[in-house]
Amino acid sequence: MSTDHPTCAACDVPPPERACRKAAGRGPENCPTLTQSSLKRQAQEALKAPEIFEFARQASMQEAAGYAGRDQGYARLKPVKPRIQETVEFAKRLGAQRLGLVFCAGLVKEAGVVEEVFKTNGLETVSVICKVGRVDKSELGLDRSQQIDMLAEKEAMCNPILQAFLLNHFQTGLNVLMGLCVGHDSLVMHHSQAMCTVLAVKDRLLGHAPLTAVYTYDSYYRCLKEPLD
Question: What is the CATH number of the domain that holds 93?
Answer without folding.
Answer: 3.40.50.1860
